[in-house]
Amino acid sequence: MKSKFILSIFGIVCAISVFAQDANNIQMPELLQNQSRKTINIPDILGYQTLKCDFHMHTIFSDGIVWPTFRVNEAWNEGLDVIAITDHIEGNPSRKHVGGDNNSAFEIAKVRAREKNIILIHAGEITRSMPPGHFNALFLDDTNALNKQDWHEAFDEAKKQGAYIIWNHPGWKAQQPDTTKWWDIHTELYEKGMIHAIEVFNEKEWYPIALDWCVNKDLAFFATSDIHGIVSEMYDLKKYHRPMTLVLAKERTENAIREALFANRTIAWYGNYLAGKEEYLKAFFEAAVEVQLYEKVKKGKIYIIKNNSDVPFEMQTLEDSDFTIPANGETIVTLPDKSKSSFSVKNLFIAGTENLVVALKLK
Ligand SMILES: [Zn+2]
Ligand SMILES: [Zn+2]
């Protein structure tokens, strides 16, 4: 009798302990990914903040496959500061399914951008056959107003709205299969102040000749993803960041970005390559690299060289003793006393076929 009583007490306790768990809904947050933002390690230079920007991407409001808020989440996860959603202005294959107009992607994404501290630039892509080709217009008030039959009118409207205009993928083989050519129409647009920058890199290709155009015509260097799908599916993010344009801005605001762009303070970053004006690449290199003399030996001197940035530097010497200063790492090199004091950095381009030349300065 006593044991029966104990058993039944035991039964009640078991039942209570089972029911202590909520039978309706048990949360398992351990299954979820940590919502953390990646840090992109690059130096601020020349008194400016170096902002990480991707000014070319698509959503379901043109021929992309994602909803606009997804572009903001993606940019936040990957450590960017600034994005522009640049859906094609003329013709949207998804319109009959999703409705909306040329301003919809910006309006939908801007709330999420504010929540995530991402600066979202109102923009659109003028999409024409070559010439003139495709152009992104940034800092628009009303993208719908650029939807014109005649492309000249689209450019006039962009200029009227104070837009910053970038010639996109000039060497895209679908439009320039043999030669990446600058047409007379581009001279006309350039002289009217309707081209401010060129994508020297787009998606997964770059156009060395366009670097020369940037140098000779004093245009800003841009690198963009032009992503239509999902960045983490498209790019090998374990090895590289997505392609981006670094903007040297006085502060982290839309107005400061506009000022920096119109002043050509950009660096294109794609894979392990940087392309831009010599003064900016030199400042970048010098801010990232620290050189210490380790010891003197018979053959010359041994140096410890550190790199505090996500960009490796591939150094070329005249003595065939090339070496790499790894990203976020260090190397030890012996350089002969007669070694030339300047080095060519093979992955930093100041023109189509010209590398940055640097001296290793002791710190
Ligand atoms: Zn395009
Ligand atoms: Zn595009």
Query: What profile does the largest beta sheet have?
Result: 15 strands, mixed
**Averaging pLDDT over every residue, what do you get?**
93
The CATH C-level name of the largest domain is Alpha Beta
Contiguous uncertain segments of 5+ residues? none
What order do the helices and strands follow?
Answer: HEHEHHEEHEHEEHEHEHEEHEEEEEEE
Number of helices: 10
- Supply the number of structural domains: 2
Question: What is the radius of gyration?
Answer: 27 Å
What is the percent of helical residues?
Answer: 25-40%
Strand content: 25-35%
- Give the name of the CATH superfamily of the largest domain: Metal-dependent hydrolases
- How widely separated are the two ends? 88 Å
Shape: globular
Query: Per CATH, which architecture of the largest domain?
Result: Alpha-Beta Barrel
CATH topology group of the largest domain: TIM Barrel
What is the β-strand count? 18
Question: Can you offer a commentary on this structure?
Answer:
The chain has about 375 residues and is α+β, with helices and mostly antiparallel strands. The chain has 10 helices and 18 strands. The protein has a 15-stranded mixed β-sheet that branches. Strands 12-13-16 form a 3-stranded antiparallel β-sheet. A hairpin with a 6-residue loop joins strand 3 and strand 4. Helix 2 packs parallel to helix 4. The termini are far apart.
Key structural traits:
363 residues; alpha+beta; TIM Barrel; Immunoglobulin-like; 15-stranded mixed beta sheet; 10 helices; binds zinc ion
